[in-house]
Amino acid sequence: MSLSVRDAELVELMDDPACDPRRLHATLRRFDTVNRLFSGWGATYRRVLRPALLGLDRPARVLDLGSGGGDLVTRLARLSRRDGLDVTWVGADPDPRSLDVARARAAPGIEFRVTDAAALRRAGETFDVVISNHVLHHLSRDELAAFASDSLALSRGRVIHSDIRRSRAAYGLYAVAVTPFAPGTFLRTDGLRSIRRSYLPRELGDALGPRWRVEAASPFRVLAVGNGDA
Ligand SMILES: C[S@@+](CC[C@H](N)C(=O)[O-])C[C@H]1O[C@@H](n2cnc3c(N)ncnc32)[C@H](O)[C@@H]1O
Fold first, then answer.
1. Could you tell me the end-to-end alpha-carbon distance of the chain, in angstroms, rounded to an integer?
2. Could you list the residue ranges forming a coiled coil in this record (predicted)?
């Protein structure tokens, strides 16, 4: 198997609407651990998100697009509260199965909604910062263009999309490291498929176009940062 070319044809098990609901539920709950270990959001919060929130000098409203099981938005809410920042958070995901898991993580200042980027844009919603994690590699080329455009339209400030960076090292490391967390979930199969579907920084930059600064945030991560239109 070669990782030199992005495999956009691979379908992840959790993207099948008819997949086993118990496994999906377990996968969404365990994304918490996987995101803490692999997503690099601690560093992204300190380096990109926190400065954007501090720069506002007023209460902020942040949107997590494709919030899945809601673990990231819950973690970021905790980090921002610890830093004394006044932030309300919205986690939005069109998949109601995700929202069941997210709502079990409900906390003050966080709202979870069953909706998507296009619907929020049509409703004229705006936020101070828009983020996403592990959404870009799921999307087709047309979906990616629409999602990126919607995210810019929804933000008055920064837009920060974080995703996996495709590499042999990421594939090999994840295959070993996920083993203790994988039983009863889709984490192993879908994580490895995600790595094969994910972008190199140069590929993501080409797919998103000139409004975005795409960087290799670590050997395993890409970050696309834009400035919103709202
Ligand atoms: C792999 S999950 C990532 C979940 C979560 N962000 C995480 O890191 O664990 C990708 C999510 O993106 C959501 N999604 C796909 N297209 C979307 C759109 N246009 N607007 C909002 N969410 C979307 C899917 O429903 C899915 O829950």
1. 43
2. none
Residue ranges of domains in the chain, CATH in brackets? 31-168+199-227 (3.40.50.150)
Give tens-digit pLDDT for 144-163.
999 999 999 999 999 999 99
Instruction: Look up residue 126 and give its two tokens.
Output: 């705006």
Note the pTM of the prediction, 2 decimals: 0.96
Count Cα atoms within 13 angstroms, Cβ side, for 185.
20
Residue 132 · residue 161 · CB < 8 Å: yes
Quick check: CB of 157 below 6 Å from ligand 1?
no
For ligand 1, whether the C-beta of 35 sits within 6 Å is yes
Ligand 1 neighbourhood includes 164 CB (under 6 angstroms): no
* Residue in this structure with the two tokens 């198997």, named with its chain if needed: 1
